Amino acid sequence: MKLLKDIKNIKGKTVIVRTDFNVPIQNNSVIDDFRIQKALPTINFLRKKGAKIILISHISAVGASLTPVAKYLSKIMPLHFSKEVLGKTTSTLSQNLKNGEVLLLENLRNDTREEKNNKNFAVELARLGDPSMRRAGIYVNEAFPVCHRQHASIVSLPKLLPHFAGFALVDEIKNLERVFNKPPHPFLFILGGAKFHTKVPLLTKFAKIADYIFIG
């Protein structure tokens, strides 16, 4: 993986950061900011380096809004928020970004092309960071929980721009390597999540490796 520290001459460049801000919302407010906090080191690193940062994320299902996330982020950093994914407002805001400024776009899944891994959608996103499509912009993946999805912002977009792994994503990979590469025993494997059918392959794999498995 290419790391953030490997990026040269970030100042003045537009960096599209795929985050995972799919956080619990109640009464139009963020009630668990864990995923946001995990992305902050990457965002703040890019801000200090003078990048122009565009944050893209999904939240829940189609029709949901990242407005509560925008309100949360605006309390801890200067933030622009576009209430559309692509369009005139997004284009204007992205073009007017100054070094160190941050723009958050609306829920990616509000555009049906995201989940269809539509190549034209990926190109339109890439042009926000690189209008000439000469690979002048940068893509950073800081969305480990959705890396398995065949969506445009995960699969097709990084093919169009120089791409790098965010700090949290790298940490997740390092921790997984500890589990996959001869973990110490006794080994307790705790497996959580609502979609049980996606957990069956893990159960099958770790039934042969772990001493105990707790399912929640």
Order of strands across the biggest sheet? 5-6-4-1-7-8
How many DSSP-defined strands?
10
The coarse overall form would be globular
Order of helical and strand elements: EEEHEHEHEHEHEHEHE
Helix content: 25-40%
The main sheet comes to: 6 strands, parallel
The helix/strand class is alpha/beta
List the total number of helices. Answer: 7
First-to-last CA distance: 32 Å
Question: Into which percentage range does the β-strand content fall?
Answer: 15-25%
Global Rg: 18 Å
| Chain-averaged pLDDT | 92
Identify low-pLDDT runs. none
Structure description:
The chain has 216 residues and is of the alpha/beta class. The chain has helices at residues 34-48, 67-74, 88-95, 119-129, 152-156, 167-180, 200-206; strands at 14-19, 25-26, 29-30, 52-56, 79-82, 102-105, 138-142, 163-165, 188-191, 212-215. The strands form three sheets. The chain has a six-stranded parallel sheet with strand order 5-6-4-1-7-8, with helices on both faces. A two-stranded antiparallel ribbon has the order 2-3. The chain starts with 13 loop residues before the first strand and ends with a strand. The mean pLDDT is 92.
